[in-house]
Amino acid sequence: MTTPLLRPASTLPLRRVLITGASGFVAASLIRRLLNDGHEVHALVRARSDLWRLAELRDRLTFHTADLADAAGVNAAFQAAKPEWVFHLATARGEPDDFDVFLHGNIIGAANLISGCRRYRPDRLIVFGSSLEYGHRDLPLREDMVLAPSSLHGSTKACASLLFQQAHRSEGLPVTVLRLFSVFGPWEGSARLLPKAILAGLEGRDLHLTPPGIRRDYVFVDDVVEASLLAVATEATTGEIINVGTGIQTTNEDLVAAIDRLT
Asked: Which residues, listed in sequence order, are joined to residue 243 by a DSSP beta bridge?
């Protein structure tokens, strides 16, 4: 989907913003952009979250501690923050077959977030989905494709997307779903492929790769942040699903070869 930008994202009226999954990689860049633009940012994190990405921002953020699967905790965070914008970045992390982790983190968490939005009615809700919702395809991934996820993560993210869309259709919840592809950039965890490959190159170590041919659409985190702010600034995106990627696929081996040349 292509929509016109109503106003530059950096000149938006200042808002109270609630961010779920605030301790994560993409959130780290989004939070910094929102703070630099002057918004009041509330960070929703779990009790066991590692806050290293936000360490120097502690005095600029208001923290709320709750697991998204805890309805009372989510409600308390909404009541305290009274957000005008909500960016939902929290996502379940676990072993590929850990059904309870993905069920509670992605689906029950989505239901509790929808309940919070019902009570406190933010002006906009930006939900971060995943390209995994489409499953493995031999064609370019489009927003109007029938979903055919091949993993628990993708399946539960797809279920969550459907719940948010239903809430928009039946209740007017002002939601936009951004389906992210393979995000990279500052604050990325060292166990992910790109930083792991850079460290291996700098240190002259071998790197074990997946079988050849696996391709990903790598998108820079600052472009994801810009897309997020364009979505929240543009009323025409309400109720829409928008893919956030580059349209360019890169194999793991080509990525590592490029890093090898540079290091």
From this structure: 179
Q: How far apart are CA 233 and CA 90, in angstroms?
A: 21
Q: Which amino acid is at 221?
A: V
Closest listed residue to residue 243, CA positions, set 161, 150, 129, 151: 129
pLDDT confidence tier of residue 11, bands split at 50, 70 and 90: low
E runs forming strands in the chain: 16-20, 40-45, 62-65, 85-88, 124-130, 175-180, 182-184, 215-216, 218-220, 241-244, 250-251
The burial class, CB within 10 Å (0-12 / 13-18 / 19+), for 157 is buried
> What DSSP assignment string belongs to 219-253?
EEHHHHHHHHHHHHH-GGGTT-EEEES-S--EEHH
How many C-beta neighbours within 10 Å does residue 209 have? 14
pLDDT band at 6 (very low <50, low <70, confident <90, very high): very low
Q: DSSP letter for 151, please.
A: S
Structure tokens at 48: 């066991």
CB of 159 closer than 8 Å to CB of 121: no
Q: Give the model confidence (pLDDT) of 165-209 as tens digits.
A: 999 999 999 999 999 999 999 999 988 999 999 998 889 888 888
